[in-house]
Amino acid sequence: MKLVLTQFVTLDGVSQGPGSATEDTSGGFTRGGWLVPYIDEMFVRRAVEGLRLADGLLFGRQTYEAFARDWPRITDPGDPFTGLMNSLPKYVVSTTLDEGDWEPTTVLMTLEGVEELKRRPGRELQVQGSARLGRSLLEAGLVDVVRLVVAPTVVGSGRRLFEHPVDAVGLKLTQHEVTPSGLALLEYETVGVAPVGEYEGVSAFV
């Protein structure tokens, strides 16, 4: 399976609390809910299409516990995400969680467990949220695809998605689209170490 990191971020790279002011207030963060004003029909359609590619969902403990609390309570038959979120196999990377109660859930103690999952046949193993886990997976070279939903806003504070990577990571843009509300939907493949160079004037590029 391909490992796909899916994240919502602001223009200044913040991934904390996209859904509401109370979603994640850790570190004294008070500016949550920044994605909500830009959610439109096209975004929902693309998000559902992306989720339908998943053969499993991968979480860190904190995001898993929040999702396990909230998603089983959503009973709206018109919600396009509920059936998929609740029925897909869930995997949570944690050294402190013994078992999960959001079935079907498997607890993985190490990133080696993620590597084993990637060797299984299938389409996509998707990281939804779980920014800290996502950074660790990217640093370990386990991420194949990065999908970003970039909101046209700068919040100025909060936990950022790509803080302090161990190594520079190269990415190749493979898809891009903008929704009517201004959300940029970007998809990248990881291509190893990010290249660098020396600028030698415009003539070197034409």
Tell me what the structure shows.
The chain is an alpha/beta fold. The chain has one domain: Dihydrofolate Reductase, subunit A, CATH 3.40.430.10. Helix content is 21%, strand content 27%. It has five helices and eight strands; from the N terminus they run E-H-E-H-H-E-E-H-E-H-E-E-E. The protein has helices at residues 41-51, 61-70, 82-87, 111-118, 131-139; strands at 2-10, 54-60, 90-93, 105-108, 124-128, 145-151, 169-178, 184-193. The protein has an eight-stranded mixed sheet, with helices on both faces. A hairpin with a 5-residue loop joins strand 7 (169-178) and strand 8. The longest helix has 11 residues, at 41-51. It is globular, with a radius of gyration of 18 Å. The chain starts with a strand and ends in a 13-residue tail after the last strand.
